[in-house]
Every structure is written in structure tokens, then in C-alpha cells.
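Researcher: Next entry: Paraoxonase (Equus caballus).
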Amino acid sequence: MGKMTVLSLLGLGLAFFRDPWSSYQTRFNVFREVEPVELPNCNFVKGIEAGSEDLEILSNGLVFVSSGLKYPGLKSFEHDKPGKILLMNLNEEEPTVLELRIIGSKFDLSSFNPHGISTFTDEDNTVYLLVVNHPDFKSTVELFKFQEEEKSLLHLKTIRHKLLPNTWTLTHSWITYLWIL
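Model: Predicted structure:
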């Protein structure tokens, strides 16, 4: 026990006699200069100035983007406008953003505050989009059917339940469960 204490104190003493900051500065790269990296295939995409919270990429190259999420107490880019779902086609040479029209008689577009999104493609290649929505800072899930020809989302259902998770990956069992609700 005595030898261990002496060796420990000797080790600590030697560590303090050596320049203690130089080894930490070297190890943590304190004075390293960070050089910017230019990515050759990275481009600014106009139309997402209000920010994006989540995106979902389909196997055919279409991308759904949720945009316009507002947090309570924080400034937002477009505080007077509702959120939106955007569509991009990554197969295009220069992808552009298209705002999807949301149709449906019972959907309140003025309080749309989209957060997480997930897609499910049915056996007949119908694409369903589930969007976690926070109207008046509560949580709901909005179920949409993507209409590719019209470039629109048909609102099918609003799902409210205190035990619904905020984000998830959809499986066929989740779709069955959500249709029952």
C-alpha cells in the first residue's frame, strides 16, 4: 500500500513539473486552424429558407421535406405563415423545390406546424406520408396520400393520442394500427 502511494505521488509530481498545458493543447488540437472544405457536388437549394426539420427519401429519388417548424419562445423565419411539405427530385440535374398543395376538407392548414415525417409505400405503389404536427404546440399525426400527378397531398386523417411517439419508422403493423385509430 505504501509503495503504491509513493509511486502515485511521484507520478503526479512529475506530471506537474512538466509543462501541463502543452500536452493537452497538442492532444486536443487547441491551436489548429480549421480550413473550409468546398464540397464539389453541394449546392444551395432555393425554397427552404424557412428551415427544414426532417426529410424522407424514396427509392425513386423523390424527397419529402418538412419545413417551417415553429418552437414556442423562439423566433422563426416565417412566424406568420403555416408550415409546408416540400418535394424535390434528386434525379434532376439541378434539383428544385416544389411546395406540395395540401387538400382535404377537414385539415386546418393555418395551424400546420410540421416536425418529423415518415413514408409508407403500399403494395400498389401508393405513397402515404405521416407527418408529426404540432398545432398550437400539441402533438398530432397527419396522414396524407401523395398524389404524384397533381403534386399534392390529400389529407386523410388526423390522429390524436396521448401515447403516440413523436417520430418513428413506419411498418405495415403501424399503418394498420393507425388506420384503426
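Model: Note for the record: The chain has one domain: 52-180.
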